[in-house]
Automatic annotation (TrEMBL):
Keywords, sorted A to Z: Signal
Name assigned to this protein: Galactose oxidase
Species of provenance: Actinacidiphila paucisporea
Domain Galactose oxidase-like Early set as annotated: residue spans: 498-593
Membrane-spanning ranges: none
Signal sequence region: 1-34
Gene3D superfamilies in alphabetical order: Galactose oxidase/kelch, beta-propeller (2.130.10.80), Immunoglobulins (2.60.40.10)
Matches recorded under CDD domains: E_set_GO_C (cd02851)
PROSITE patterns in the record: TAT (PS51318)
All copies of domain Glyoxal oxidase N-terminal, residue ranges: 179-492
One of the GO biological process terms: carbohydrate metabolic process
Length: 596
């Protein structure tokens, strides 16, 4: 066990509790799902008589999955009946997906990229990820989901990563094992994915560098990074260069790399052309380092053009300057402890772009939130309870929405690799304009480790991820659809007629410039908001960003807006433009590309 680990790693620990769930679930009560279980419950298993099922399915049969999902569905409906959709929004849909979606990216085509790995387990009481597996079973998977196509297998398209021969000594080609990598957007709207898993040694960093082109829906391999990175973070800076920090190196778990790299290497130009994907492009090493003890730091490019890096350890907080590649120490986070996989967001700041960051989850015992602004930390309004593995999204109206969460890695409150969840973590929570939080409707599936959520251009929220719960509650384990997606409709979608954004310019728009757009509801528009798309994993989302745009002119069905003042305020790339009415109800967004 490495000293950098808290001792709770599912990668190295076996489950403390092994139970068969059929007998327990047959009781058909919520208590059965929330009570601690013992081996004594491993009784009459309806799956054991079936000679065709694989061993793992015998250990955890379909009947168990079906009953569990039924119970979660029923308790969700019952508990959510008290929430008025016009006040709290509602969970509106739930359907199967072909990917676990440990990683997601909202694409400027309107589709969503989902990627993860081939699982090595159908039994959710065992580690499902091929983290320690060496050879071809350590492989990546990827799909795009088209929300316009709804649900069902035809709404998804497989977009597997390139076949690669990893340097693991086996000579076994496989789809690139890019899971537990880091990612952010290139300024041309493509997704850069860096790092991955080489297998063995408790989690070993791969040097993979890949770019996904959302228009051709193809992957493009770049030159290897200089070090392996498993659990790195990537942020796009104001120039549009992707800065890559941390991650366990090619030597294995417990060897986080301090090396900072950027893509593409200087002096190469950043990719600005949406029709041209980089191929075989090199990354470059920074002159200063980022010596994070823990991986997946929260990185943000704020409106001073600097990168702020908030480590999970309270004393590992730094500011990085991409211009001269230097590092400056920031004050320690005041909670003084370790925050393990909680969310963080760069807070909306009018038309100027974010200058502060809110650190939220990561400590199940601490409901407080911590805001870094003006060079100092401030204890901010608490949520209802502490949770880890949560995702917090900035909605078009500037409110924050927390979804997902659990007790610890692969732990839902009843021990490692025990899918029996403390159901309080299913509750969503929203931070309103007054800065206070309130609990809202609950999601169907508890989703912890590897959970994700993105805001769709139509304002709905897609919730997905967490292979362990998706396996434990799969409506048909033989279907090949391993994951699930749940759709949440925020309260703003239950307020009646929405403003309409009818037209935006086809080409790129510059900074501090006039932006003329069309609307068929000019009298219903009081605000214009740019929202950066979300690409997230492991509660890390460096990309999301919220800016108000000044409305400088109105003429009939045309509005003139003023674009952000500089690339520091909003790095070059694709943004969703929403028009909002005076109640905060957003239009369906259209994509706008900012370019220098
Ligand atoms: Cu992971």
């Amino acid at each position: 066990m490495s000293p950098t680990r808290s001792g709770t790693s599912p990668r190295t620990r076996r489950p403390a509790v092994r139970a068969t769930w059929g007998a327990v679930l047959a009781l058909g009560t919520t208590a059965a799902l929330t009570a601690p279980l013992t081996a004594a419950s491993a009784a009459s298993d309806p799956g054991t008589g079936d000679r065709d099922v694989r061993a793992v399915q015998t250990e955890y049969p379909q009947t168990t999955r079906t009953l569990r999902l039924k119970m979660l569905t029923e308790t969700q409906a019952k508990d959510n009946a008290k929430f008025d959709p016009a006040q709290f929004g509602k969970f509106a849909d739930y359907f199967s997906s072909p990917d676990f979606a440990a990683h997601v990216a909202m694409l400027p085509t309107g589709k969503v990229l989902l990627f993860s790995f081939e699982s090595v387990e159908d039994n959710p009481q065992k580690e499902p990820a091929p983290t320690d597996v060496i050879g071809s079973r350590n492989a990546g998977t990827a799909y795009v989901w088209d929300p316009a196509a709804g649900e069902g297998p035809a709404a998804f398209k497989a977009v597997p990563p390139p076949i690669v021969d990893m340097p693991d000594g086996t000579n076994q080609p496989r789809p690139a094992p890019f899971f537990c990598a880091g990612h952010s957007y290139l300024p041309n709207g493509m997704v850069g994915v860096f790092g991955g898993n080489l297998g063995g040694n408790g989690g070993t960093g791969a040097k993979l560098a890949l770019v996904f082109d959302p228009w051709t829906e193809t992957w493009h391999q770049q030159q290897d990074l200089s070090v392996g990175r498993w659990y790195p973070t990537v942020v796009t800076d104001a120039e549009g260069r992707q800065v890559i920090m941390s991650g366990q190196s090619e030597l294995g778990w417990g060897t986080p790399t301090p090396v900072i790299e950027e893509f593409p290497a200087r002096p190469g130009a950043v990719p600005l052309n949406p029709r041209k994907a980089p191929d075989g492009v090199a990354s470059g090493v920074w002159k200063s380092e980022a010596p994070y003890r823990m991986d997946y730091p929260h990185l943000f490019s704020l409106n001073d053009g600097k990168i702020y890096g908030f480590g999970r350890d309270a004393d590992q907080e730094w500011r990085f300057d991409p211009a001269d590649q230097t590092r400056t120490q920031l004050p320690d986070r005041p909670d003084g402890g370790l925050r393990n996989y909680g969310s963080a967001v760069a807070l909306p700041n009018g038309t100027q772009g974010p200058d502060s960051v809110l650190i939220l989850g990561g400590n199940r015992n601490d409901p407080n939130t911590y805001r870094f602004s003006g060079g100092a930390w401030h204890k901010d309004t608490p949520r209802a309870f502490g949770r880890t593995q949560d995702d917090t999204l900035i909605l078009p109206d500037g409110t924050l929405f927390t979804v997902n969460g659990s007790y610890d890695i692969r732990n839902y409150g009843n021990g490692d690799l025990n899918p029996n969840a403390d159901l309080k973590y299913r509750q969503t929570e929203t931070r309103g304009a007054d800065g206070t939080w309130r609990l809202g409707p609950e999601q169907r599936l508890p989703r912890g480790y590897h959970s994700n959520a993105v805001i769709l251009p139509d304002g709905r929220i897609m919730v997905t991820g967490d292979e362990l719960q998706q396996i434990a509650n799969n409506p048909d384990i033989k279907s090949g659809l391993n994951g699930t997606i749940e759709i949440y409709e925020p309260a703003y979608l239950h307020q009646g007629a929405r403003p309409v954004l009818s037209k935006v310019p086809a080409g790129a728009v510059g900074y501090d410039a006039a932006l003329t757009v069309g609307t068929t509801t000019p009298g219903q528009v009081s605000r214009a908001v740019l929202l950066a798309p979300i690409t997230s994993t492991h509660a890390v989302d460096t990309s999301q960003r919220h800016l108000d745009l000044q409305i400088t002119g109105r003429s009939g069905n045309q509005l003139t807006l003023k674009t952000p003042p500089s690339a520091n305020a909003a790095p070059p790339g694709y943004y969703m433009l929403f028009l909002l009415d005076d109640k905060g109800v957003p239009s369906v967004a259209k994509w706008v590309r900012l370019a220098p």
